[in-house]
Amino acid sequence: MELTNEISILKGIGKKTSDYFKKIGVVTVADLINYRPSGYKVYTDWVNIADVDFEGVFAIRARITAPLVKRTTKNQKSVVLCKVADETGDMSIIWFNSAYLCSVLKAGMVFVFYGKIKKDGNTYVMEHPEYFPTNKYRELTKTLYPVYSKTKGLSNKTIVKAISQVIESYPIETLDFFDEKFLNKYSLCDYEYALNNIHFPFSKEAYTKAKERLTFDDFFIFLSMIRLMKDSSRQIDNNFRIKKWSIAESVINKLPFELTDAQKKVFKELVKDFSGDYACHRLVEGDVGSGKTIIAILAMIMMAENGYQSALMVPTYVLATQHYKKIKGLFSNLGLTFNVSILTGHTKAKEKREIYEKLESGEIDIIVGTHALITDKVKMKNLSLVITDEQHRFGVNQRSMLADKGEMVHVLAMTATPIPRTLAMILYADMDISLIDKAPSNRLPVKNCVVDTRFRKKSYELIINEVRAGRQAYVICPLVEESENKDLVNVIDYTKMLEEIFPRDIKVSYLHGAMKDEEKEEIMGRFSRNDIQVLVSTTVIEVGIDVANATVMLIENSERFGLAQLHQIRGRIGRGAHQSYCIFMSPFLHNEKTKERLDIVNKSTDGFEISNKDLDLRGSGDILGTVQSGFLEFNTTDIYENADIIKKVSLAVEDYFGNEEDKERVFKKIEQRFGNIDSLKEKFLSSF
Ligand code: ADP
Ligand code: MG
C-alpha cells in the first residue's frame, strides 16, 4: 500500500463508495490517514424527565410503567409505544420497526434510554432510543465513539472500516516527523499511537494524549511556514514617508469622544512607523468594541493629507458599508474634503468602472471594500497603506495581493482575537504588535445570568420589554447534531415558535451558516436598521456588525459552547450606552460541573482569563466537542485551548531551524504526508 494509492485499493471500497469519499475530500490513502473524526459520540449523564423541555439528544433513566403496545401507522409502518417514568415525570417512547421489543422490554424494568427527544404537541416523545442497563450505561459514559462528518451515501461505519484497514496495514510509524529523543524532550506520544487513539480512543486519557500530539504536528507545520515567511521578508524601506499629520491630530481633538490611552498610544506608534525609515507592518489587536475603527480612519487620514491613497478591506459587505458610512459621516461633520469610495461585489458595473478609473487617476484618496478590492482590474496611482479589518478572516495572500497594488506599502492589520501578547508574537511573528487593552470607559458592563430553562418565559419577557424600549435582541442556538441540516431546522423552527409567542409587530428573523452571502448580508443589514428586532442565529454572527442598539443576548443550550466562544458571542452586545443583558441558558444546571463552567463567563469579562479557567476546570481527562476546525485552520478557541502546545511548538521550531540537517529531514517527512512544501504553503496562505 502506497500513500499515493487511491482508496479503491482497500477492501470493500468500490467505485461508488470512493466517489462518496471524494465528496469529503478523501481520494488517496494519505488523505484517509489525515482524515479525523469531526467529533465523538459521548453518552452524557442522564437528566430528569421534568427538566426536558427542549428538543435534543438526551439520556433519561426511567422505569417502564405499562406493557409495550404495538401499532401500525396509516402508512403501514410498524411502531412500538412505551410509557416510562422517573421520580420527576413521565414520557412516551416510540420505536420504529422493532416489534420484537414487546417481548424484551417489560413493565417494571428500569433502563437508561438515550436518544432524540422531540416535541409532540404539548408533550415530549423520545424517538427510537438506544437502551442500556444502568451499570452498562455508566461504563459507556467513560468511552468515546468516533463520528465522522457525514455525507449522503457514506455511513459512519464505512468510514470506520476504511480507516481501520489503513491503520492496520500501513506502516504508520514510518510517517513520524520526530525521533524518540525529540518525542521525549517534548513529552509527546509517537505518531502511530496518536493516529490509533484519535480514531479509536483506548481511553479518554489516550485520546487526550493523541489529540495533543496531532495538534502539536499541526501547529508545528503552521509555525514552520510562518518561520519560512519571516526569513524571506526582510525589512522594507519606507517609500511613503509622511511629513505631516496635523489634520489627523485636529480630527482627534474634534471627535465626540476622547481617545482612550490605549488608542492614543497606537496612534503614536503609527506616526512613528509612517514617518520612519521602514515600511509599517503592524497588527492592532483589541477586543471587540475596543475602538479599532477610529485608528484605521486616522491612519488613512494621515496618508491622505500627504497625498497618498489607502485601502481598507473588510470581510463582509455589511461591514464595508458600515465603515464607509462612518467615514463619510465623520468627514462631512468635520468638513474634510478627502475623496472616499466603496467597492464591493454588489457595486453596479458602471459605478465599478468609474471607481477603477478614479483609483488609477488618484482621484480617490480612501477606498473601502471587500474582496472586490483585490481583482486585477483595481489599479491604484499611489497606494501607500493597506488595512485589513478582522484580519483573522483573511488569508495572508489576500492581504499581500492587495498590498501588491502599491509599491512596498504600509500594512496594518486589525483583529479582535483577544490572544495574549506572547501568543500573538508567535502566531504573527512577521509583524509588530499594538495592543488596545482597555475599552472606552463610557460603557456599562453587561449584566449576566446563568439560568435553567424555567427562566425561558422570563427571558422572552425581558426581550419584549427591551424591544418596547426601542432595543433589539439576539437568540443563539447551538448545532444540535453534527449536520448543517439540523442546524437549519433548528433556527428556523425556533424563529417560528418566537413568532407565535411574540406580539405581531415584533419582527423575528433568523441567520445560519448555510444561507447565501447576500441573504446573510440582507438580514444583517435589516437588523442593523432595526427592521428586525429579534435575530435568531447560530454562531455565524461571531464576526458581525456593530449594532450598538442590541442589548439582549439569550444563548440556548449554552453548555454546548466552549467558554471562549461564549465570550465572543457575548461581545455582540454591550457596545452602546444602554444597559445590556446576557442570559446563559441551560437545562443541565443541576450538573455541578456545567454550572461551575458557566459561572466562569458569568463572572468574568476577560477572554483569556475565561479560557484559562475553563481549561483548569476541564482537566485532561474530560473532553467536550470536536477535534479542530480543519487542517491548518485554527480559530480562537483552538488557539486558546492549545496555548501551551503552541508555546512548546514555537521552541521546537527554533530547535529545528537551528540545524539544517534536522530541518531537511523533518520537511521530507512533512512532504511525504502532505505533499510538497510549496503546495502546502499555498494551502497555508489561503487558510491563515
Ligand atoms: P472594534 O474595536 O470592535 O472595531 P469599534 O471601532 O467599532 O470597535 O468601536 C465600537 C464603538 O465605540 C463605536 O461606536 C465607536 O464609535 C466607539 N468608540 C471608539 N472609541 C471610543 C472612545 N475612545 N470613547 C468612546 N467611544 C468610542
Ligand atoms: Mg471592528
UniProtKB/TrEMBL annotation:
GO terms for biological process, alphabetical: DNA recombination; DNA repair
Transmembrane segments: none
Domain of life per record: Bacteria
Helicase C-terminal domain ranges (all copies): 459-616
Limits of the Helicase ATP-binding domain: 273-436
InterPro entries for the chain: ATP-dep_DNA_helicase_RecG, DEAD/DEAH_box_helicase_dom, Helicase_ATP-bd, Helicase_C-like, NA-bd_OB-fold, P-loop_NTPase, RecG/Mfd, RecG_dom3_C
Pfam families given in the database record: DEAD (PF00270), Helicase_C (PF00271), RecG_dom3_C (PF19833), RecG_wedge (PF17191)
Enzyme class: isomerase
NCBIfam families, A to Z: PRK10917.1-3, PRK10917.2-2, recG
PANTHER family cross-referenced by the UniProt entry: ATP-DEPENDENT DNA HELICASE HOMOLOG RECG, CHLOROPLASTIC (PTHR47964:SF1)
GO molecular function list: 3'-5' DNA helicase activity; ATP binding; ATP hydrolysis activity; DNA binding
Protein name: ATP-dependent DNA helicase RecG
Known role: Plays a critical role in recombination and DNA repair. Helps process Holliday junction intermediates to mature products by catalyzing branch migration. Has replication fork regression activity, unwinds stalled or blocked replication forks to make a HJ that can be resolved. Has a DNA unwinding activity characteristic of a DNA helicase with 3'-5' polarity.
Family named by the database record: Belongs to the helicase family. RecG subfamily.
This enzyme's EC code(s): 5.6.2.4
Assigned keywords, A-Z: ATP-binding, DNA damage, DNA recombination, DNA repair, DNA-binding, Helicase, Hydrolase, Isomerase, Nucleotide-binding
Species for this entry: Acetitomaculum ruminis DSM 5522
Record SUPFAM superfamilies: Nucleic acid-binding proteins, P-loop containing nucleoside triphosphate hydrolases
Reactions that this protein is recorded to catalyse: Couples ATP hydrolysis with the unwinding of duplex DNA by translocating in the 3'-5' direction; ATP + H2O = ADP + phosphate + H(+)
